[in-house]
Design goal:
Elements: H1 14-24, H2 38-141, H3 147-150, H4 155-171, H5 174-205, H6 208-218, H7 224-235, H8 245-263, H9 267-294, H10 299-321, H11 329-340, H12 342-382, H13 400-420, H14 426-455, H15 469-495, H16 500-521, H17 524-540, H18 560-579, H19 583-604, H20 611-629, H21 634-647, H22 657-661, H23 671-678, H24 687-693
């Protein structure tokens, strides 16, 4: 059933087939409401099985018949294939015979062609010789009648003929054929001039194809080199109109390189001759004029011109490398100046640095001296205390313009050193430039400014002192960062693979250490800051602040002295952060914070405190502690936390003193310190307080 009934349909499922059969059979029990009749269902199954068996037999007979027919056709097809193979073998044999015959005929044809060529070549030569003899006779007769000589449009054919006649005339004896040789030579020269003129005209018209034809004809003439010269000369007409001769030359070479291959059969030779002409005629003279113009009158401009010309030469040399042509004319001239002027360049750089610093220092010093002189005259006439003459009046003696000029000149010096120095002298010359930069920028400029700033630091007891030293530190720090960047960006690539590297690093290290010593000496600035705080406290703090007459009428949160001191401290902290960087900021702020704490501690020890005064002191210390947070130093904040805890001893009830002293923040303090704070209370002498504290 699965094999025959459902071939080509969906897969056969026996259960579904039986179910459908039972459903179609009356009494099969699958329809709703019908009684189940097993006999009738069995009878239906038996009949259906018999039908299937009959169908299977019928299909089996059909399959056998088809198999017999297929076997018969297979035998017939095999027989037909054998016959085709025999026919193919016969056709292949015929093809081989035809191929052999074709080869035989081709051999005969080639042989015949060789024989014809052997006969035709002498004949062509004889015909050509006859034509040349005819043209030669015309020269003998002295009258050129042939159309090839009289028709200007056939100049190409005439040139070919006259060139051959010219070669023949060279072999003839002079005594017998002097006249005809002269006529042929004259015609040879005339045609050569006509061809060159035609080439010139075609070049001006921009007719590349005509130029190529004429150049091919002139290739066998003696005047071919003159044709190349004409081409080179006309190429340069209008090519050098700008100030930059090197750029014009590079553009001209690029343009000609694209064109010359379409015109001449030997473009490399023509391009080489063009470049040689440009270098010898245009560039060499230009370089000489530019260098000689300022060599004796303006050394700085001369050296700038030398570097500029050498850089532009390297540029154009790189441009023509693609043509595999190198010209040494300009390079030799530049090399001569480059090698002889290395010392002159370094001397000029030294003079330039000196001039920058001299002009800057002169302007600053004149201004400062004028102010000091004016103050001295006023002091003498009025006897007014106008302050010490060492005051620099806010001048840091550091000039941004000078620094930028020095670094810019040094950057250019390193670039020129890289360009102009021999590879063997490059590290040495770079080191000498770096040494000059250190001398003038670090020693003569930064170090001088630090020395002057140190001398201008006011004493700790000065009133309203201006701390300009921090401004000097800030500017010096910024300048040194620029110096360090130039060291890494421009000097390191020049000396990285030479022994000079260690010398430069050591020199830089020495400069850093020298400046750090100067900065350490500037610690006197902190003394001045503390002195200013003392003046503020002395002027603003009153004894009645902490022992008010009316304990019940205190309206302020903290004293005026505290407000002004905190304002001053915050400004100085911000100034220190702006002036320094790295670990130096934390080191200086820690030192300032410790001194600030000591000042406040000693200041509080000078007063007696009532209950309300103690509360006000606690408020002041709390404000000082807020200010200490700006330092962002853990030790400083810890010191003020402890001081705040000590101030609690000024207000705590006598019965709770021992408990407070044994607290976490005060337990580790010396008992004398605790006692000193308790003694500041106005009620200390009471027997009750003394008994509780003891």
């Amino acid at each position: 059933v699965r094999r025959f009934l459902f071939c080509g349909q969906e897969p056969f499922v026996a259960d579904e087939y039986i179910e459908r059969l039972a459903w179609r059979t009356p009494g099969g029990g699958s329809r709703g409401g019908e009684a189940f009749d097993p006999k009738r269902l069995l009878e239906e199954f038996v009949n259906h099985i018999q039908e299937l068996q009959v169908m299977d037999e019928r299909i089996q007979r059909k399959v056998e018949k088809l198999e017999q027919q297929c076997q018969k056709e297979a035998k017939e097809f095999a027989k037909k294939v054998q016959e085709l193979q025999k026919s193919n073998q016969v056709a292949f044999q015929h093809f081989q015979e035809l191929d052999e015959h074709i080869s035989y005929v081709a051999t005969k044809v080639c042989h015949l062609g060789d024989q014809l060529e052997g006969v035709n070549t002498p004949r062509q030569r004889a015909v050509e010789a006859q034509k040349l003899m005819k043209y030669f006779n015309e020269f003998l007769d002295g009258e050129l009648k042939s159309d090839v000589f009289t028709n200007s449009e056939k100049i190409k054919e005439a040139a070919d003929i006259i060139q051959k006649l010219h070669l023949i005339a060279q072999e003839l004896p002079f005594d017998r054929f002097s006249e005809v040789k002269s006529k042929i030579a004259s015609k040879y020269h005339d045609l050569e001039c006509q061809l060159i003129q035609e080439f010139t005209s075609a070049q001006r018209r921009g007719e590349i194809s005509r130029m190529r034809e004429v150049a091919a004809v002139l290739l066998h003439f003696k005047g071919y080199s003159h044709c190349v010269d004409v081409y080179i000369k006309q190429c340069q007409e209008g090519a050098f109109l700008r100030n930059d001769v090197f750029e014009d030359a590079a553009i001209l070479c690029q343009r000609v390189n694209k064109q010359v291959g379409e015109i001449f059969s030997n473009p490399e030779t023509v391009l080489a001759k063009l470049i040689q002409n440009i270098f010898e005629v245009k560039l060499q003279g230009y370089v000489k004029d530019q260098l000689e113009e300022h060599r004796k009158s303006d050394a700085e401009q001369y050296l700038k011109n030398l570097y500029d010309l050498y850089t532009r030469y390297l540029y154009i040399n790189d441009e023509i490398i693609m043509y595999q042509i190198s010209q040494g004319y300009v390079k030799d001239q530049l090399e001569e100046h480059r090698k002889s002027d290395a010392e002159q360049y370094l001397k000029n750089l030294y003079d330039l640095y000196t001039r920058y610093l001299y002009i800057n220092d002169k302007i600053i010093v004149v201004g400062v001296l004028f102010i000091q002189d004016l103050k001295e005259r006023l002091r003498q006439r009025t006897n007014l205390p106008l302050g010490p003459s060492i005051d620099t009046h806010g001048e840091t003696f550091l000039s941004q313009e000078v620094v930028v000029n020095l670094l810019q000149e040094t950057k250019q010096a390193f670039e020129r050193c890289h360009r102009l120095s021999d590879p063997s002298d490059l590290p040495k010359n770079a080191f000498r430039i770096f040494s000059m930069l250190v001398e003038f920028l670090c020693t003569e400029h930064i170090d001088y400014a630090l020395e002057t700033g140190l001398a201008g630091i006011p004493s700790s007891d000065s009133k309203n002192a201006n701390l300009y030293f921090l401004d000097v530190v800030h500017q010096a720090n910024t300048i040194f960062h620029l110096f360090d960047k130039q060291f890494n960006d421009h000097l390191m690539p020049l000396i990285s693979s030479s022994p000079k590297l260690s010398e430069c690093l050591q020199k830089k290290k020495d400069i850093i250490e020298q400046m750090e010593v100067k900065l350490d000496m500037g610690i006197d600035t902190l003394n001045c800051m503390i002195g200013q705080m003392k003046h503020i406290l002395a002027a603003e703090q009153k004894k009645t602040d902490f022992k008010p007459e009316d304990e019940n009428n205190v309206l302020i949160q903290y004293t005026n002295a505290c407000v002004k001191v905190c304002g001053y401290v915050r400004k100085q902290v911000e100034k220190i952060r702006n002036s320094m960087d790295g670990k130096n900021v934390d080191t200086v702020l820690m030192e300032l914070g410790v001194r600030f704490h000591r000042l406040i501690y000693e200041h509080l020890q000078q007063y007696s405190y009532s209950c309300m005064g103690g509360m006000l002191a606690i408020c002041d210390v709390a404000e000082y502690r807020k200010c200490a947070k700006d330092f962002k130093i853990a030790l400083v904040l810890q010191l003020f936390d402890t001081l705040h805890a000590l101030c609690n001893l000024l207000v705590v009830a006598p019965d709770n003193l021992k408990q407070v002293c044994s607290g976490e923040q005060l337990a580790n303090l010396d008992k004398n310190i605790l006692h000193s704070f308790v003694q500041l209370r106005v009620d200390y002498r009471s027997a009750r307080l003394a008994r509780h504290f003891s």
